[in-house]
## 1
Amino acid sequence: MEKEKHKYEKVKMTNMCMITDSETKKVLIQNRNKNDWDGLSFPGGHIEEGEAIIPSTIREIKEETGLDVTNLIPCGFKDWYDYKKKERYIVFFFKTSSYSGTLMEESKEGKNEWLTVEEIKSGKVAEDFIEMLDIFIGKSKRKEFFYRDKKEENENDRWQKEFY
């Protein structure tokens, strides 16, 4: 009897990094001005075809902030499978307090600034960023933020949040 072959998914991969200033304990935040996901969040971006995950994060942080980051620590991820598009989307979460360089005031993604976690939580954050922030800062023991696609026609009711 022949083994059933695995069906491979089409996957889009991205990254995001929380950079903490060791002296002030503030974190670098972007006030993103993207129509599809605007508000306060951490810098990051897409992993290019054939690119390794950690170097892609270092590259994205440099492009969006001007900073060179090192000693990235994986701290979780967010993912979902979109049945309509037939693809999975994964965001790898990293954090570090090791950086050098001069911070760019703004990039095409939005304005960069140092804020406390409390300031972030009281600001206009990107959709579901507070739950993501809890994973970054270790407030949540869970490491995966998963959106379950309920396959509903109504986009407002389509996604169910799950944490693992």
Note: The chain has a mean pLDDT of 92.
## 2
Amino acid sequence: MTDDLWRSPVASRCGIGRRSRRSFRERHLTAPLTMPAMASQIEIYQDMSALSARMVEAARANDWERLIRLEKSVVALRRSLAEDDDNARLSRREAEIKHALIQRILDDDAEIRRHTEPWMEQVRQFLGGNASRKRVESAYGASS
């Protein structure tokens, strides 16, 4: 399956891609901090929205590894926005588009949480059960 997003101008300027040979630090910590000069806020929000839609698909499919990879890409884009999120430069139309994109991202986040929270609860119960079992075994000795 080909992800067109990985070929988007913003993603490539942020160093986000499947086949990047750069280290994690170079891709996610260094590159995004220098990127905003060429990409507009709207382009970045559009890429974030596209990624969040893919995150919803991954969450629905219980594809946690893909979800984590996509979330890391969103974080890189979010960092690039932190440097250049000046609403004063946006036209009224751009501000409306930005608002709509942010709302879509928030809606996707709610959908992702709807799928991940039950799984996280199972993990918590499993880990909690193991911790309780280990405490009992420690206190009374493990049965052989």
Note: The two ends are 50 Å apart (CA to CA).
